[in-house]
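Format notes (please read before filing issues)

Several people have asked whether sequences and C-alpha cells are stored in separate files. They are not. Every record keeps both together, in the order shown below: the sequence lines, then the C-alpha cell lines. Line labels are part of the format and must not be stripped during preprocessing.
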Amino acid sequence: MVDAALVPWLLESDPALRWQVERDLLHEPPEVWEATRARIATEGFGARLLALQDPDGQWAGGAFFPADFDFQGPEAAAGAGQPWTATTWTLNTLREWGLDPAVLRERRTAELLAENSRWEYDDLPYWGGEVDCCINGFTVANGVWLGAGVGGVVDWFLEHRLPDGGWNCEWVEGSTRSSFHSTLNSLKGLLAYEVATGGTDAIRAARHAGEEYLLRRALFRRLSTGQPVAPWVDRFAYPFRSFYNVLNAAEYFRQASRLDGSAPDPRMAEAVELVRAARQPNSTWLQARRHPGRVWFEVDVPAGEPSPWLTFYATRVLEWWDDAGAVAGDD
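Then the structure lines:
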C-alpha cells in the first residue's frame, strides 16, 4: 500500500503520472482517473510533446535519430548517449504515459509516418521495422496503439528468436545468445500486440519462451555462474528508455500476469527484493541517473533525488507481488 504521507507528493505530478497513481495506487473510480488521463493531451508533458510533432508526422525529422544527428560527430561518441527526441522515442513516451491514441489518429500520424518516415538503417519503411529487436519491439507496440499494420514485424520476432528462448539485437553481428535488454524490449512489443489483437498460439509460445529466458535467470543472474549479469540490474532510472533493470522487468511481468490471469512466478522473488531493498526510509525510490543523450525536456528529477515516477512503479510492483503472496498464503 502506498505510504499515505506520499500521496500529496504523487498527486502533485504531471497528469501523465497522476492518472496512474489515482487508478492503480489510490483505486479511484474511473470517472476520476479518466478525467485526469484526458488532460495529457492538453496539459503538461504530453501537450508539450504533441506540440513538437512535425507536419510530416515525425518528431525531430527522423525515425530513430533526429534529422540533424551527425553519425560521425561528438554526439555519436561512446558515452554521449542516444538522442531521445526522434519519432520512435516520442511515440514510446506518449504511449507509456497513456495518451489516448485517438489524439494521434486524428492527426493521421500512422499514415503520415508510412508516407514520410524511413529507418536510418537501409532506408526501410517505418511500419515495416528493421533488424534491431528493440526497435522492432517499439514498432509493434506503437503500431498496434495507432492502428498501423505491423503483423509482418510480429512474424519477424517468431523467425528471429534465438535457441535459448530470447532475442539479441546483435544477431546481425552473429550473436547466438540472447540479451536481457533485447529480450525485455521484444517481449514488451509482443505483449502489446497480444493485448490489442488477442495474438496467436505461436505468438504466445514465443512470448512465454522469452519470459522463461529471464525467469530461469531470476531476472538478473547469469545462468552460467549465478552471478548478477551487470551492476545495472538494480540501478533504477526514469524514463526507462530501452534499458534493463529488475524494476523495468518486474513491471513487464506484472502486465503479462494480468493478460494471462496468472500469479507472479516465484523465480522473481530475488529480483523483487532488490526493488524493495532500494526503498528509502521515507518510502520513496531515488533516481539513480539520467541516461545521457539529447531530450526535448526533463520529465523526472536529477540523480540522487526522490523520483515520483520510480516510487510509483516500484510501489505498484510491490503491491502486485505482495497481494499475490497474501492470496497464496490464504490457500
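For reference, the curators noted about this record: The mean pLDDT is 96. The longest helix spans residues 308-330.
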